[in-house]
Every structure is written in C-alpha cells, then in structure tokens.
Amino acid sequence: MAETETTSLTPPVQVLAADGTFSPTASAEPYLPYLEALSDSDHEQFYRDMVTARAFDTEAANLQRQGQLALWPPCHGQEGAQVGSGRAARSQDHIFPSYREHAVGLIRGVDLLGIIEVMRGTTHSGWDVADPRNGNFRPYTLVIGAQALHATGYAMGVKFDGATATGNPETDEAVMVYFGDGATSQGDVNEAMIFAASYQTPQVFFLQNNHWAISVPVTTQSRTPLFERARGFGLPAVQVDGNDVLASYAVSAKHLTDARSGGGPQLIEALTYRIGAHTTSDDPTKYRTQDVTDSWIAKDPIVRFEAYLRNKGASEEFFTGVIADAKDFTADIRARTHAIEDPDLSFMFDSVYSEDHPVMTEQREWLSAYERNMAGGAA
Amino acid sequence: MTLSIDAQVATMPMAKALNAGLRQAMAENDKVLLMGEDIGKLGGVFRITEGLQAEFGEGRVLDTPLAESGIIGTAIGLAMRGYRPVCEIQFDGFIYPGFNQITSQLAKLTNRNEGSMQMPVVIRVPYGGHIGAIEHHQESPEAYFAHTAGLRSVSPSTPNDAYWMIQEAIASNDPVMFFEPKSRYWPKGEVDLSGSAASLHASRVVRTGTDATVVAHGAMVSVLLAAAELAAAEGISLEVVDLRSISPIDYTPILESVRKTGRLVVAQEAPGNVSVGSEIAATVAERAFYSLEAPVLRVSGFDVPFPPAKLEALYLPDADRILEAVDRALAY
Ligand SMILES: Cc1ncc(C[n+]2csc(CCOP(=O)(O)OP(=O)(O)O)c2C)c(N)n1
Ligand SMILES: [Mg+2]
Q1: Which residue from A89, A96, A239, A378 has the fewest beta carbons nearer than 10 Å?
Q2: Do B69 and A194 touch (CB under 8 A)?
Q3: ipTM summary value
C-alpha cells in the first residue's frame, strides 16, 4: 500500500502546537511580525470564520442527503488553511478558487447560497465576480488545474496595468489561486508556474495538500514534497501547517506582501487533511483507514485554535455566541435553499454569446414553441 | 511591399494583409495583445506578426513560453483583466495541447458567468495542406471548434477578407477561432484599405452560375473558382459560395443559390466524417428539400490521418474531384 505522506527535511511552518499553545517553529521566525499586527478581534474573526464555514459545510452535506443538492464537496478539516490564507488577502486582491474553498468565499463576502445553487444545478457560477460585493472571488472551476493559468494570465494583466509594486500596500494588487495536491500533476498548473516565473507575476499559488485526490494518495502524485517542486520553476516556496490558522495567515500575508511588492510569484503548500469524503458521491472506506483520519481529526484546526483562544482568556459567551450565530446562518441557508426556483428554459440560450446569435435565437424559439404545444396538447 | 498613406487599394498577399490588419487593431486599441511562440523577434514562422514587436514593444507582442494550454489559459486571464489577446498557434496540428482551455474554459466562460464576463480572445490558426510539410503541419481541425458552442469560427479566403476579418474578430466580444489558410498566405490580391468590413459571419456568392452550387471555405474557395473556370469551358455554369464563417454558418446565400440551381456540392480539405460539409449537407436537405434535383454531395479529404506530403495531392480535393462530383450531381 502506498504511503500517504511525503517528507521534507525542514519541518513545516507552525506557530500553534497541537494543544493550542503558542510555540513557533524556527522556520516560523520570518513570519512572526505578521502575527504581531493582529488584534484580539482579528483572532475572534478567524475563529468565527472557521466555525461558520464548518457549520455551512455540514448543513450543505445534509441538504445533499435530503435530495436538495446533486453533490457536495466538503471543506471539513481545511478551514485553517482557507481562513488563514483568505484573511491574509486584501480587498484589492483577486482570488481564483478551485471548488472546495467555501471558507474563502465566505470571507470575501460571497453569499454562500451561490455555491448551493451550483451544486443544486440551477447555475454554473452562482455569483457574479463583476459585483464588487463578491470580493473578487471568482466562480469555481471544476476542471482540475485550469484556473491556475487564468490566475497567471490575470496577474500578467495586473502587472501590465502597473497596478502592483508601486509601494502602496493599500492599492497594490496580488492574485491568489487555490488548487489541490492532485492538481499539481496537471500540465496547466505546471505551465502556470512557468508563465508566472517568466513574467514575474504578482501571484501566490496556494496549494492545499489535503493528502487525497479522490481515492489517490498524494504519494502517487509526487515523491518529493510538493512545495519543493516550485523551487524548480524559480518560485520561492514554503510548506506550512495548514491546520494552524495563525501559521497559514502569517505565511500567506508575507508571501502576498512579497508578491504585491515586486517579488514575483510564490508558492505555499498547506498541509491539511480532507476529513470528509471527496464529495457526497464518494466512499472513502474503500481506500483509506479510519485510524489515519482519526490522527488528523486530533489536529482539527478549530479545536486547536479554540484552545489557543481559551488560554488567552476568551470568554464563554464569545464561544456560545459564535455557535448560535452559525446556527442562524445555516438555518437561513436551509430556508433559502428550499426557496430556490428552477431557471426558465431560455436561460440555457441566453449568454452563450455576448450578443444575439442566430442559432441561439432559432433554437430558443423552437423549444419555447415546442413546450407550448406540448403543454397545450396535454391540457 | 510599401504602402503610401493615401493608397486606397493595395495589392498584397494575405500574409501582409493579416499583418496590416493586426497593426491596425493594435494601433486602435492598446488593450490588444499578441501572444504566441516565436511571434516577436522572428515575426512568427509565417512572418504574419513581422515588425509588430519592434513597433509596439515587448509588452504588446509576447514571445511566450512554449505551451499552447499556457498561452490560451493566460490569454483567458488577461481577457478577464480587460485585455484583448490574439493568440497565434504555430501550426494547426499543435492546437490540441490547448484544446481543453479552448473548449472547457474559453468557450464557456461567458455562459458560466451568465453574460457578466466577456471573452474577447482571438486564436489564429494557420491551417490546411498544399504546402508539402511533415506530419502535424497540414491539418484542418476546424470541425472540433465549429462543434463547440460559445466559439465563433471563421476563415478568410482572400487578402481583403483577411485584412478586414482579423480586425472584426479582434473587435468581437466573443472568442473567435480564426483559421488562416496557410497555402493562401502568399498569392497576392487587392485589399481595399478604405473600404469597410462585411459582416464577419456573412457567407458570400463569389461567382454566379445557374447549373450547380459549390460551397467551401478557406483555401478550397480558390479550388472551386478554378473548377468553375474549367466547367464554364464545358458549358457548365457553377455558382460559387465562400462560407467565410463556419460558426455560425450564414445559410441564406447558400439556400437562395440552391433554390436556383437545384444542386449542391460542398468541398473541404478536412476529413468528411462529422465535418462542416456534413452539417451544410444536412441543413440544406432539411430546408431546401423540394428544391433539390440531386443529393447534396461532399468532396472532402479522406477519413485518414493527413498523409505524408508526397500523397497530399491525392488526399486534397482538387478541381477535377470537384468537377467529378458536379458531374454526378448533374446526372440526376
Ligand atoms: C481535468 C479533470 N480530471 C478529472 C477530474 C475529476 N476529479 C474531480 S476532483 C478530482 C481530484 C482532485 O484532487 P485535488 O487536486 O487534490 O483536490 P481536492 O479534491 O483534494 O480538493 C478529480 C480526479 C476533474 N474534475 N478534472
Ligand atoms: Mg487533494
């Protein structure tokens, strides 16, 4: 049986030990200044984000089981990596997600009902990236790795526009792209790093190594630690404990800052674990054992960060308040899921092209007339 | 070739007309970028982009890394950012590494985003045979793209169309597959620089006739015109339609012509199986059935990989193969 871990000589950057005590590794040293800038309310926000995302994710999986959704890809276990990196991005940054970054979407301001709509089958996108309320969080990409090239091209444009590396941290833009360990085998991800290096794009490649690509362990994708590959493309790269939200934040903040200030593309590999199934259609008992999953459950990012906050003296009311708010959040999602209406038949023809198109017009009219006739015939 | 400023009509080969059209589009809109392999310093292996990097700079004409998916995928990202990239694929047979980005991303992004995002990307593809080249350098892959919703696909057959159509393709807010018939890069023709563009997707009768209609796109149009000359000498009058656009196809001139002649022969370099010609044959049968005096006939490449160059003259339809089909149609 294949091993499920690749090993590196340097341990990943970590600031919180498994029990939540603050004990940074030596490798965390360059990142600590980014943590010093955080306030208590920032910490509380990180916790709130993770708990809300977990509750949403659990609710969505339930909705799938109840027949409301065709599919659900859970983010359970990856909240530390997602919230740390998502909170490190600035409002002017651009986020190119894969399909599991629900916590990042939440942080960027997206109404998460949009993800529900995609998984229910009423839309392919769920939210409009052109709407500034969606925080430059682009719709999900389902073809593994494809979005890495879009992010690199976009970052080339940012650079051509002179919208980065001006020295103004309030406006300098960066691009962050999310992808998985399986995606690192795709040509597109590798080509994206090549183009990024050539054009020195203001960009962070954020790799969530959750150890699985459906049923295939990361060791089938790579025998070297994945972040070390990036160095071969000429990208500064670091491996971080993705279940440590503070470490994920600090590492992301530094590399985004470097990317924004002319340092070129960077890669972060966040070590984490997919606690749930790949999607609700998957059966992990066929390919992995519960004891390994249990060992990762023991490293749960939320439990660890809660211990840290409790040690620092966060109040009981704070924790109960966050949980109550998350319940309200999911109740609202549930209610609105039940109210989602199916799109009209013209929807599939409407935006295939940017303007009127003779074939679309003809086929839309034909189908409308056909449906009218069938309805008339049945009446 | 030199052009005086006030020249209205200039004679030039398609290669120069494309170069002039690209230059015009770049001068008009500084969001227009050219991307591709060897297109900058070298001016492209066919020299279509010659001189443009020197004129507009390395920020406008990008010698990219050697990766077709990378070129198209980053062009998509640039289009998201507001640029209008024009990508060159070096040869027809090298488009396949970019197929995924074209069909799953470029073609679908406007639809996926419910119209809030436009994808003004042009992909220039030198295509087709007649140049005696080795494998992967003579293919006609246009049917794959005509089959893909969300893409527009066009192919000019003359220098004048090349000059105007490349500018229209760049002005389109949808992705355009721009198939350049590379065997027609060098013959000269008149380009009306002061004219105006015909609609990018309009097909056009380029020779009128009464006995049969023949239709093609790209390099095959010149073969049809040669066949029509030969037929005329034998007293057979052929009407020739240049498709210009293969997605969408403008059927109006084709149907009007078939209603007049009652006979249709469709020609193409590509293999006939599931091809543009098949689509036209089916559509004309659906819409002009009672006007037809004979079955619609296709003259195509064979359903084989493009053969070694020494066999290309046998593979590619020539005027005689067109006339053989015309004779069969007239025999009904
Ligand atoms: C090009 C492509 N091939 C196959 C698939 C089917 N597929 C969906 S997710 C997945 C595994 C992806 O693994 P990884 O990149 O590690 O991301 P994760 O699901 O773990 O977040 C596969 C094979 C796909 N979506 N796209
Ligand atoms: Mg994975």
Answers
A1: A378
A2: no
A3: 0.91
